[in-house]
Every structure is written in C-alpha cells, then in structure tokens.
Amino acid sequence: QVQLAESGGGLVQPGGSLRLSCAASGSIIKINAMGWFRQSPGKQRELVAIITTDGKTIYADSVKGRFTISRDNAKNTVYLQMDSLKPEDTAVYYCHAPGVVTTVTRPYGRDYWGKGTLVTVSS
C-alpha cells in the first residue's frame, strides 16, 4: 500500500504564492511520473502539472509561466510552487502517482491519489 500525503494548501490573496508538497510512502519499489490535478466545484478533475523521473514536465496551459513542478526522487516527494495565483486557481489539489510498483504489486504498477488539499485564492 502507498500513501500520498499532501500539504501546503490554504487561503491566499490574488497575486500571492503557495507551495504544495506530496510525499509518497509505503512499500515502494519504483515511482515513475508524479503530478498534480485539481478539481473545482461543478467541474471535472483536470491536470495541472506532471513530472517524470528524469525531470521532464508537462503543464496545463492555464498555469504555464506561473506554476513550477519539481521533485526529490530520493524522498519520493513532488512539489508544486504556485505563483501569481488567481481566483480561478481555487480548487482542491490532488497529488497523483501513476503506475507505482510495490512489493505487493510487482511487477505491475498501480495508480494512487492523495486525499487532496484545498487552495483558496480570494481577497
């Protein structure tokens, strides 16, 4: 079993910054990409950013130039630095780790999600 523990959400004014963290723990053999999704009330969950093991990144158009995803492979942790936040960034942010191989699932991988952390951008 794998746990994804998110932290760093909260209330911030427009134009402000927040940094989200997500640490993966458990009987992990291999984690491939890690990423962040978000979901606003009445909307579908959408990709925010994803990063591969070797540092390749993909961003949603709506956050390019404002958000930066990074990871510490040694700590199985992914970060999301969010700058120039806008009210439309308000959402629950979920950490995602697809295809994680564990001592139980090997050689196969399984997808895991965190419980989510709320980000509210409001004055």
What would you note in describing this structure?
This protein is mainly β. It is 0% helix and 57% strand. It has no helices and 12 strands. The mean pLDDT is 96.
Cα end-to-end separation: 40 Å
Secondary-structure element series: EEEEEEEEEEEE
Helix count, per DSSP?
0
What overall geometry do the principal axes of the alpha carbons give? elongated
Mind telling me the C-alpha Rg?
Answer: 14 Å
Short description:
Helices cover about 0% and strands about 55% of the residues. With about 120 residues, the chain is mostly beta strands. The chain starts with a strand and ends with a strand.
Topology, please?
Blueprint: E1 2-7, E2 10-12, E3 18-26, E4 28-30, E5 34-39, E6 46-51, E7 57-59, E8 67-72, E9 77-82, E10 91-102, E11 109-113, E12 117-121
List keywords for this structure.
single chain, 0% helix, 8-stranded mixed β-sheet, 12 strands, 123 residues, 4-stranded antiparallel β-sheet, elongated, mainly beta
